[in-house]
Amino acid sequence: MTAPPRKLRLEEWDARHASLVAGGLRESAYGGVLSRHVGERGDTRLRHLLFDNSAAALRLWNFLLTEEDRLREHRAAGRKLVGAMKDLGTVPVMAFALPDLVAFYPDGAWWTPCLMEHSDGLLEVADRLGIDDSFCPVRAMLGAFVTGSHFPIPDLLVCSAGAVCDDFSAIAQRLEPLGFPVFWWEIPRRRSPEPGESAGSLPGGLVVPECQIALARGELGRVCLALEELAGRPLDDAAFSAGIRAANLVRRLLRELRDLVFTAASSPLPALELLIAEMLAIHYCSDREETILVLEGLLAEAQARVAAGQGVLPADAARVFWVNPVADLRAMNLLEECGGRLCGTDFMFGHALVDIPEDLPPLDALARVALADPMIGSAQDRARLICAEMRRLGSEALVVSRIPGASHCCREGDIIRQIVRDNTGMPTLEIEVPPLGDALMPALRSRLLALVETVIGRRTL
User: Fold this and answer.
1) Looking at 98-198, which runs of residues are DSSP E strands?
2) Which of 134, 311, 316, 446 has a CA positioned 20 to 30 A from the CA of residue 181?
3) Cα pseudo-dihedral 167, 172, 178, 182, rounded to 10
């Protein structure tokens, strides 16, 4: 079943799948050919993407693209569904610690217009409700709730408020009058302690006032009570701690995979697959145990390729640190077509990649991780963390991908670029990628090519 690593078009994957099956591949229940997702689900964007040719990548894609089926199976089995919105990696840790609760992110609907190439009509529904394209593409979530056609309506809908994206808050508030009640909890804007103010540490080395930790702990305690009521049983510390250990296993696997991909002489996995793998950390694609198996498979594949001196990209590819996830997945392929490779990422949920402390009371530990969210502090803090990661990984350039309409992107990208440029001297680029970027691809290609050429030119200086 071993084959030299390369990228395949969707139509090539049918033959590759047949070869893997003939070689003894044993698939999970959600396995099968990738091309079926076009006809069965309307995920026509897959026809324009390039995919890694490994069995591990096949499992990853099939896992991602069958989440809706999984959610409906959970409901049919009597499990309760928790829709966690905006906190990206916090509430699901608690939810999965309780038996028969499953958490997912309705936010994930923001990729549906890309995958279905606007045939889903979700953005048009949002338009009719007054949430037009001056808002972030996550407005597709509003259309998904109204149509009820992309995920089951959660039994409990939880959303963080306070130091969150204004666009998301406005969209989530529209759900209430449409008949979708929301349980709100607040996360404060992270700040440094004042002189003489009692302080506490967060994962990742940040320090905040103890009063902010107490506030986050209290708010998450409220969420915990709501989850317990839904589950019909209390969440004791033993079960909570077990949930944290399982979450940390996911995070450690992903950190090991990221570091290997970013630092290998030749990248052992493409950017697109790594982006999808990172997204698993925030809610496990509705199945935590399967997420662990998917990540173990990807890590084993990457380790085998590195040991064999194999990669999917040339060894001299420009090492690019990428900030913010792209609304159009095609952009990840484009980076590599232009001679770049991922060498570090900040996809807005760095707090879901660090270990949750296991030597603290569980609720206190989770509160500290929630406060480590890079999106609830200053852009300067986020930029400093990016600079440190770029130095650690040996990145050679920075790309900041603005999310169309997102309120936090108006000035943040430019602030990050300036700080990175001033502190590292590396070339930077800011781009904007809409949910379907075909019309912009020639311009994006030119700009990414210029960045790569700059990186290559600097190597000879």
Assistant:
1) 101-104, 156-162, 183-187
2) 134
3) -170
The tens digit of pLDDT for each residue in 226-281 reads 999 999 999 999 999 999 999 999 999 999 999 999 999 999 999 999 999 999 99
Sheet holding 318-323, edge to edge: 340-346, 318-323, 397-402, 428-432
Look at residue 443 and tell me if it is in a domain: no
Q: How far apart are the first and last CA of the chain?
A: 44
- CA-to-CA dists, residue 349 to 89, 278, 280, 355, 414, angstroms: 7, 9, 11, 13, 19
Q: Is residue 15 part of a domain?
A: no
Structure token digits, residue 445: 């290609």
Instruction: Print the domain residue range for 214.
Output: 67-238
- Examine residue 409 and state whether it is found in any structural domain, yes or no: no
- Give residue 360's Cα distance to chain centre: 26
pLDDT tens profile 31-47? 999 999 999 999 999 99
3-state helix, strand, coil in the chain (%, to 5): 55, 15, 35
Angle at 88 between CA 362 and CA 399, to 5 degrees: 130
In a domain, 294, yes or no: no
Query: Which pair of tokens denotes residue 205?
Result: 């080395």
Q: In terms of pTM, does the model score above 0.90?
A: yes
What distance in Å separates the CA atoms of residue 343 and residue 246, rounded to the nearest whole number?
27
Distance (Å, whole) CA 251 – CA 350: 10
Encoding tokens for residue 278?
A: 């990172």
d(CA 353, CA 258): 10
What is the rounded CA–CA span in Å between residue 250 and residue 458? 37
Report how many domains make up the chain: 1
Cβ atoms 4, 313 nearer than 8 A:
no
As a residue count, the chain comes to 461
